[in-house]
Amino acid sequence: MMVDALRGVSFAVEAGSVYGVIGRNGAGKTTLFRTIAGILPPSEGRVTVWGRVTPLLSLGVGFNRELTGRENILLGGLAAGLDEETVYEHFAEVEEFAGLGEAIEFPMRTYSSGMFGRLGFSVAAHLNPDILLIDEALSAGDAAFRRKCMPKIVELCERDCTVMIVSHGLEFVKQLADRCLWIDRGEVVSEGPAGDVVNEYLAADSIDPTSAVALEDV
Amino acid sequence: MATAQPPRTPLVYEPTETGLPLLRPYLRDLWARRNFMWHLARTDLKAEHYDTALGQLWIVLDPLLMAAVYYLLRTVVRPAGSSGVGRNALIAHVLWGVFFFTFTSNCLTAGARSVMVGKGLVLNASFPRALLPLVAIIKASVDFVPTFVVYLAFHAWLGQPFTVALLVVPILFALQTVFGLGLALLFAPLMVFYRDTGGFLPYLTRLWLYLTPVLYLVSEIPPNLRPVFLVNPLYPFFGALGQIFVGAVPSPWYLLGAAAWAFVTFFVGAVLFLAREREFAVRL
User: Fold this and answer.
1) Residues 6+ apart with CB under 8 A from B65
2) pLDDT digits (tens, 9 = 90+) for A110-121
3) Does A55 sit within 8 Å of B47, measured CB to CB?
4) Which residue, A194, A49, A30, is CA-closest to A130?
5) Could you tell me if B186 and B268 are in contact, meaning their C-beta atoms sit under 8 angstroms apart?
6) Are residues A206 and A155 in the same domain?
7) Mean pLDDT of the B123-147 span
8) Quick check: B258 and B237 in contact, CB under 8 A?
């Protein structure tokens, strides 16, 4: 059985801006990102991309669990499309940001999922593309590391590159994104300035916008 | 916000009906990813046999034990000497036969699985998918080299002749690699679209082994079965190798046959793979 994951979704993202994508689970957010990244071909319509896209859809893409964390930094960077030189340029930063201490020398099969996520995020966060697609899954690890991730994502959004971010953290989208797309079951519900779209979304889901919990993670 | 200068030509993604991707940009992308390809192969090789006491020795030990078992089987069914073949010559034949056959069957098996195994990469990163079967072939080829060195040691120990004809072996190996890559490109999409392919593969390779002069010599093939061998792609490879390892000059017909099978398989495999690779992510 074939299901249309996205139908009639049409929008443009201005170069250098931050674009939020919101919607419930299964709305088609990840499918949309995979289409923009050229991973899934559209069955109809067209995607035009000006620049090199780096999709951050999942942590630790290309990692081999039998190898040490250090070896996986190179492998993960190459998997994301970087050349070897660029990976080595950022090697120390990545290692430092992950903060794994001597565990960086151990094979990754000995890592907890949190540690895996930390190294995965660290590699992802130090890539330098024209267009960055961030799936919220990126914030992983313990509370302390999450606190460290958020400013890093903010930093990524504030850079020169165009950023598209999928997030359930609505306050986050409101704050960072210039415009926002709300999709539900593969179709556009609303598109416009981030603040307006987020408020509409909250109103539709009858969530009290003043509730801190709602804005943190819906 | 300041903006980086956008590139002059955009990437356009449209529905798949268009068929084959443009070859030149595709190959350029593949070339740009060569470091990734190499590291993926290197780290995979390193990770294999990681936990075993004998470690990388298994690369050689595996086909060697296999050859020992098959030699035993052969002597039970038809002892050396029964068809005018000396024992040493038969041992040498079974050894190189098993080694070269294992190479092709590794290319087929690992190549067929390559896209399935690389699911995480296929779903989360964008790169020319042919990179995955290529990695499988690089690994199989790197694994083959020490096996061949071990064979040469046996070749000498068993008193088999060393002649100039041995210089043709690298050429045949190169053709066999092209053939293996063709098989990988052909079977990887089959595996993605029809998962049952994986279930049939072990039986297919086993049957193929018995229909290839690995456990017996070309001269032992019954005349009424000859037509079967003419459609076996490995037959010209093993015919030529059989001549080379007993010190004869390989027949040009075998070499031409091997080259023809290698390039036709590669061409058909490449067309099928490239025409279908954009759908992989949908099917995984």
Assistant:
1) none
2) 998 888 888 988
3) no
4) A49
5) yes
6) yes
7) 94
8) yes
CATH code where residue A205 lies: 3.40.50.300
CB nearest to A57's CB, from B14, B15, B124: B124
Residue scoring higher pLDDT (B184 or B75): B184
For position A141, what pLDDT does the model report?
62
Which domain range does residue A73 map to?
Answer: 63-128
Residue-averaged pLDDT of chain A? 84
B215, B70 Cβ separation under 8 angstroms: yes
> Are residues A121 and A80 both part of a single domain?
yes
Residues, chain A:
218
Say if B22 is an interface residue toward chain A (CB within 8 Å). no
The residues of A whose Cβ lies within 8 A of any Cβ of B are: 15-17, 34-35, 37-53, 55, 57-58, 61-62, 64, 66-67, 71, 74-75, 78-81, 83-84, 107, 130, 158, 160-161
Q: Is residue A109 part of a domain?
A: yes
Q: How far is CA A98 from the centre of its chain?
A: 17
| ipTM for this model | 0.83
Instruction: Assess if residue A155 is contained within a domain.
Output: yes
CB B242 within 8 A of CB B92: no
Residue B262 has pLDDT above 80, yes or no: yes
pLDDT in tens, B131-142: 999 999 999 999
Please tell me which residue of chain A has the smallest CA distance to B40: A75
Domain boundaries, chain B: 23-41+56-283
Contact check, Cβ <8 Å, B13/A38: yes
- A32 domain residue, yes or no: yes
